[in-house]
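hiii so um. not sure if this is the right channel but i have a protein structure encoded as tokens and i wanna go backwards to a sequence. like what aa goes where. can anyone help
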């Protein structure tokens, strides 16, 4: 395993990930690289391996590559998670900070490939390296295991700016590279918790920048459509929520945002219309009875009513509506979905729901 010396998965972790291999966060790798570089600075020779503590107390070891005694690299292994930072060469260069003496505070800086905060809302001062609170504590603890004196640590990742282009960093106002992140120190494959945290963070940043409208999109196609349709809104206002519409709505209401435009396709709209706010296909089925009721209420042709229960997919219903030349049932679904979203936050938000086609190119219906 490149760059890592990893013990076997704990049974509870293996069960939670379906047997998939876990990996390490950028925060854990940064702590390991920083500790190795400080060891090199103190002793004159960088270690071949270094051990750090995770937030939960477990200790893990990493192989170290040394560019110089005080400049060390730990290669990130994301396990079986499709993480764009997998293989990132987290590099830490350490120097004495000065005459701060014991008990002083070390400085963590962004080098090439590490993002810098340029906008409020992330819980970090503007102008600082994008290193969140848990990694900062991990780094501080790792350094303290070597020497209590304050140091300046500059982190860098070759190719980090290109990696960051695959993340939401630019929308969050983080420029120049990736963030150093993590809450547990461990990457669990296909973690819904990480996605949920990203959604919440994006909404917080939009609110901190004074946004009174945000656009919740279910995926890349609906997001691309929304940005074309609403070019007057800044990028920070567009949030890919995936299946976490309910969580996003509550966060927007909590932040005092006044209006939400929800953009997606008919399947998730049908689930919202039925009051289902977690729209993952494994969590809930399409309510075909609802589709049939809507078709009848809107006076749709018999072919559309029949299509509602012929299969268990909303797409078949959608295609039958278009084939019959009527979008009124789809508009009614949007109305019901918008009402369910408003009810979910006790009318704290105005909500518009927009149904787009499956290519994300045209608006089909809205309410």
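sure thing!! here u go:
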């Amino acid at each position: 395993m490149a760059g890592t010396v990893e013990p076997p998965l704990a049974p509870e972790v293996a069960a939670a990930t379906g047997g998939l291999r876990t990996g390490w966060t950028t925060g854990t790798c940064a702590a390991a690289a920083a500790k190795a570089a400080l060891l090199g600075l103190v002793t004159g020779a960088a270690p071949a391996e270094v051990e750090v503590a995770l937030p939960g107390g477990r200790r893990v070891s990493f192989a170290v590559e040394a560019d110089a005694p005080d400049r060390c690299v730990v290669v990130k292994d994301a396990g079986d998670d499709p993480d764009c930072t997998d293989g990132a060469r987290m590099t830490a260069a350490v120097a004495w900070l000065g005459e701060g003496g014991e008990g002083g505070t070390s400085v963590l800086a962004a080098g090439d490939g590490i993002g810098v905060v340029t906008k409020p809302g992330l819980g970090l001062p503007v102008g600082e390296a994008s290193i969140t609170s848990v990694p900062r504590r991990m780094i501080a603890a790792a350094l303290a295991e070597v020497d209590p004196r304050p140091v300046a640590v500059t982190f860098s990742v070759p190719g980090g700016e290109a990696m960051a282009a695959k993340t939401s960093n630019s929308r969050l106002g983080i420029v120049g590279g990736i963030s150093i992140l993590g809450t547990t120190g461990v990457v669990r494959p296909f973690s819904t918790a990480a996605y949920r945290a990203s959604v919440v963070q994006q909404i917080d940043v939009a609110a901190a920048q004074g946004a009174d409208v945000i656009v919740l999109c279910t995926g890349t196609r609906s997001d691309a459509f929304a940005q074309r349709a609403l070019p007057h809104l800044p990028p920070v206002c567009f949030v890919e929520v995936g299946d976490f519409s309910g969580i996003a709505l509550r966060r927007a209401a909590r932040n005092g945002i006044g209006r939400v435009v929800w953009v997606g396709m008919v399947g998730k709209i049908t689930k919202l219309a039925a009051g289902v706010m977690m729209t993952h296909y494994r969590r809930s089925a399409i309510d075909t009875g609802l589709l049939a009721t809507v078709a009848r209420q809107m006076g749709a042709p018999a072919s559309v009513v029949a299509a509602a229960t012929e299969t268990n997919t909303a797409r078949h219903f959608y295609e039958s509506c278009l084939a019959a030349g009527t979008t009124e049932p789809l508009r009614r679904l949007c109305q019901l979905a918008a009402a369910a979203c408003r009810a979910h936050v006790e009318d704290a938000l105005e909500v518009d729901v927009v149904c787009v086609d499956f290519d994300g190119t045209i608006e089909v219906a809205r309410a």
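oh and The two ends are 52 Å apart (CA to CA).
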